[in-house]
Automatic annotation (TrEMBL):
EC number: 1.1.1.57
Originating organism: Mesorhizobium robiniae
Limits of the Mannitol dehydrogenase N-terminal domain: 31-277
EC top class named in words: oxidoreductase
SUPFAM superfamilies attached to this UniProt entry: 6-phosphogluconate dehydrogenase C-terminal domain-like (SSF48179), NAD(P)-binding Rossmann-fold domains (SSF51735)
Gene3D superfamilies for this protein: N-(1-d-carboxylethyl)-l-norvaline Dehydrogenase, domain 2, NAD(P)-binding Rossmann-like Domain
Organism domain of life: Bacteria
GO molecular function, one term: fructuronate reductase activity
Protein name per its UniProtKB record: Fructuronate reductase
Lineage of the organism: Bacteria, Pseudomonadati, Pseudomonadota, Alphaproteobacteria, Hyphomicrobiales
Length: 494
């Protein structure tokens, strides 16, 4: 391999087996600004846009914005925004170079440039993958108005730090200039993500100006969407292998699976790409698809992560190959499926069969520790919501509550059975202050429910706490095997 980088200049010299953009990138006009250019965006939305550009829709190039770190910009900048996408299954790997990201901005380095890109009349859609914690919600679900970054952005609208600040200030500038608002398309795993972001931005704008808040509430479209593709973290070995196959260096290739799904509410007053031509499902109501994905895929992913960590399994495929964990996931799905809408045509049998195949993909090496991050932000919509619905319907969510208990136990295991910072959570400082390891299982479960706002205000809350506490006690005394035995699941060597 040479020491040359992947770039516009080296693109045509790549091996014939590597798919490359079949369009003139110099003729592409940026029409989308994306906030949060992580690996998931580059495996998902950017790939769909690449398909549209290949089909001749030249006005939908992407301006990528990193809200925090310059890492992605540092990697992709010298590569003209190009990167390789490695689609891996247990028996094969295909390489594709994606060219839809035209430029990269780093918000902390130049917030003015980001505001300029958002205010540019050609920008008609703003997409977001900033992770659940970046929406800065308080425990009750509203905007965390005391968060230092929110306080900063309200005091310094020209120098924002948060997605809220950038979006509201740019919408204010567009309004003042007579430019049509862009459509805001949330692609994060939030319940009713479009409506949720809409509400948070209106709350934020109201703290600045009531007329601005009314404008955003009435004139800006916030379609919901559901995204699905497994994207494990790229390793040094991945970089070396991919660069060797390309014959040039790619500083940040992205690993992913063959499966890819995007369901989008069709509400784009300023126009949109013809996504439906490339497998995107455009619908009037994303809700049922979102619930199925959150409760069946994301919920079982969290279960596999925490039970896997506590069982010593480093990757999803290894944890899912554990017969006891595999049986537990079936039980989890059996509890969650009845909480989904029953009259909208969801094929849960086919969906869970696909999930089982995806979780068994040995080529992805999706680390359980990666999925374990930010549990306090993920579990409410992945696990707690369906547990509350199941309980209100008269059935116990025993499997569901084991996931919550496993999260608590995994947090307690850090610094002991697990490395200190093996995974992280926005509530880590508060969890450390609780020191739940010194509390009884019941007191620990109650304290964590209070801290994380789980089942807040729900009549079923005490029952859920009791179920989680009983599981936590078994996990503490006998590990995962004891907890699963209580559910009638026996380990393979029992």
């Amino acid at each position: 391999m040479t020491n040359r980088r992947l770039s516009n200049n080296t693109l045509q010299a790549l091996p014939a087996s590597v798919a490359i953009p079949g369009y003139d990138r110099d003729q592409i006009v940026p029409g989308i600004v994306h906030l949060g250019v992580g690996a998931f965006h580059r495996a998902h939305q950017a790939a769909y846009i690449d398909d549209c550009l290949m089909a001749g829709e030249t006005d939908w190039g992407i301006v990528g914005v990193s809200l925090r770190s310059a890492d992605t910009s540092d990697a992709l900048g010298p590569q003209d925004g190009l990167y390789s996408l490695a689609v891996r299954s247990s028996g094969s790997e295909g390489l594709r170079v994606v060219g839809s990201i035209l430029s990269m901005l780093v918000a902390p380095q130049d917030p003015g440039a980001v505001l300029a890109a958002l205010t540019e009349p050609r920008t008609r859609i703003v997409t977001l993958t900033i992770t659940e914690k970046a929406y800065l919600r308080a425990a009750g679900g509203g905007l965390d108005t005391a968060h230092p970054d929110i306080v900063h952005d309200l005091a310094n609208p020209d120098l924002p730090r948060t997605a809220h600040g950038f979006l509201v200030e740019s919408l204010s500038r567009r309004r003042a200039a007579g430019i049509q608002p862009f459509t805001v398309l949330c692609c994060d795993n939030l319940p009713a993500n479009g409506a949720t972001l809409h509400r948070l931005l209106v709350e934020f704008a109201a703290l600045r100006n009531t007329d601005l808040a009314r404008h955003i509430a009435d004139e800006v479209a916030f379609p919901s969407s559901m995204v699905d593709r497994i994207v494990p973290a790229t390793t040094g070995a991945d970089r070396a292998r991919i660069s060797g196959q390309l014959g040039v260096e790619d500083a940040w290739p992205v690993m992913t699976e063959p499966f890819c799904q995007w369901v989008v509410e069709d509400d784009f007053p300023a126009g949109r790409p013809a996504w439906e031509k490339f497998g995107v499902t455009m619908v009037g109501d994303v809700g049922p698809f979102e619930d199925m994905k959150l409760r069946l895929l994301n919920g079982s992913h969290s279960a596999i992560a925490y039970l896997g960590l506590l069982s010593g399994h480093e990757t999803v495929d290894r944890a899912f190959a554990d017969p006891a964990i595999r049986q537990f996931v079936d039980g989890l799905w059996a509890e969650a499926i009845p909480t989904l809408p029953q009259d909208v045509g969801l094929d849960t049998a086919d969906y869970t069969a696909q999930l089982a195949e995806r979780f068994s993909n040995t080529a992805l090496a999706h680390r359980t520790a990666q999925i374990a991050n930010d549990g306090s932000q993920k579990l409410p919509q992945r696990i707690v919501a369906s547990a509350m619905e199941r309980l209100s319907g008269g059935a116990l969510p025993a499997h569901l509550m084991l996931v919550v208990a496993a999260w608590i136990a995994a947090c307690e295991a850090r610094g002991n059975a697990l490395p200190e910072n093996h995974f992280t959570d926005p509530l880590d400082a508060a969890l450390a202050a609780l020191d739940t390891r010194r509390q009884s299982a019941k007191d620990a479960a109650m304290a964590v429910f209070d801290l994380a706002g789980f089942a807040k205000g729900g009549a079923e809350r005490l029952t859920l706490v009791d179920l989680a506490a009983a599981h936590l006690e078994r996990l503490r005394r006998g590990g995962v095997a004891a907890a699963l035995t209580a559910l009638g699941i026996q380990a393979a060597n029992d």
